[in-house]
Amino acid sequence: MIETPRLILRPWRETDKPAFHDIINTPAMMAHFGGVAPRATIDALIDMMIEAERRDDCSMWAVDWRDTGELVGICGVRVQRSYEELPVYGELEIGWRIAEAYWGQGIAREAAEGSLAWAWDNTIASRVAAWTSAANRRSWGLMERLGMVRAPELDFHHPKFAADDPDGAMIVYTIARPV
After folding, report:
1. What digits encode the pLDDT tens for the residues 7-55?
2. What angle do CA 56, 72, 18 make, to 5 degrees?
3. What are the pLDDT digits (tens) for 118-131?
4. Using an 8 Å Cβ cutoff, are 103 and 95 in contact?
5. DSSP labels for the chain?
6. How far apart are the first and last CA of the chain?
7. pLDDT digits over 90-104, tens only?
8. Residues 6 or more apart in contact with residue 51 via CB below 8 angstroms
9. Which of 154, 23, 24 is nearest to 93 (CA)?
10. Phi and psi angles of residue 166, each rounded to the nearest 5 degrees, phi first
């Protein structure tokens, strides 16, 4: 578990699925992820994170508001194990999705900083990578605020998107382990 001044990042529970679906599966939240998805797709994302935690001892964890325990999103690090053909395969990936009600409050940054600190303390990774659609300015803007640097040699087109879908054009940022 990771604690920050306002947040707790923790492993997922099966009981998180309904709340996560409600906060994550909105048109604004899913704008760069192919649009609103069936409940089973959102549930499968949590199942994948539970499995990642079991296998790798890390995941993109549930993010709770510290004072109330309310689920406000997802953030953390995981070993990228999908799509062996991608240049980011095997990278330690950081990612986040914070509920719309919390946008603009620094929650994603606080959760991401806690996740990066955890990564440096608990893994041997020499760097952490993140990627997003080039159109997702909010996400890559946070990557830059975290000190991440564009790594265009790692850019790729996400296989879940049609070749002509601009949301599939992923730009990649990395941050090196502090010395």
Report:
1. 999 999 999 999 998 888 787 777 767 778 888 888 999 999 999 999 9
2. 80
3. 999 999 999 999 99
4. no
5. -EE-SSEEEE---GGGHHHHHHHH-STTTTTTTTSS--HHHHHHHHHHHHHHHHHHS--EEEEEETTT--EEEEEEEEE--S-TTSTTTT-EEEEEEE-GGGTTTTHHHHHHHHHHHHHHHH---SEEEEEEETT-HHHHHHHHHTT-EE-GGG-EE-TTS-TT-GGGEEEEEEEEPP-
6. 25
7. 999 999 999 999 999
8. none
9. 154
10. -65, -25
Q: Which CATH superfamily is domain 2-176 in?
A: Gcn5-related N-acetyltransferase (GNAT) (3.40.630.30)
d(CA 140, CA 157): 16
- 146 close to 113: Cβ distance less than 8 angstroms: yes
Is residue 30 within 8 A of residue 24, CB to CB? The reply is yes
The residue ranges of every structural domain in the chain are: 2-176
- Pair 107, 145: CB distance under 8 Å: no
Cα distance between residue 143 and residue 153, in whole Å: 17
Task: Return d(Cα 96, Cα 135) in angstroms, integer.
Answer: 16
Dig out the tokens for 78 from the structure: 């995981």
Burial zone of 107 (CB within 10 Å; 0-12 exposed, 13-18 middle, 19+ buried)? buried
